[in-house]
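Continuing the batch. This is chain 6 of the set; chains 1 through 5 are on the previous pages. Same settings as before, nothing changed between runs. Recording input and output for traceability.
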Amino acid sequence: MADKFRVALSGDFKQADGSPTFPDFDLKPLAEAPGVEMAFLESANPIRGEQLEDFDALILPGGVRNPDQLRTNKAAIALIRAFADAGKPVAAICHGPWLLIEADLLRGRTATGWASIRTDLRNAGANVVDEPAVTDGNIVTSRKPDDVPAFTEAVIRLVEQAPARGRAPSEAIV
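Output for chain 6:
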């Protein structure tokens, strides 16, 4: 792993009153990993395509509102696709996999997500499983807030293995 591993977190991690949107999403293990630097990308702090090389991983949180709004944003979808195409870790939890569907990144991959989007995952060509966290190549998906510990572990494993990434999509870790 490089001296600094920069992780971009996309979405609304804070509500209007300043309280966390995902109070159960414990970023501490990732934030405290040696050499990890995190950047929160919200509407006031967007990431542009030319900044792709500045980041090593992308985390897409769930909730219904954030992914539903972002999936209609062509620049956001292009950026997600660019992260994945570059072989960088991309992680999505809850409804976050909607963004992976929109970017056409799940065809032929094993994935999971919130129960109500599993038909969408299947229709996008994913092999859908009901597991807390699934890693397939450079993509991690997870079902729900109760699965945050497994999601966090999977993201950390993928980040730690980032230099050795490039596994074929069919080599899923469930």
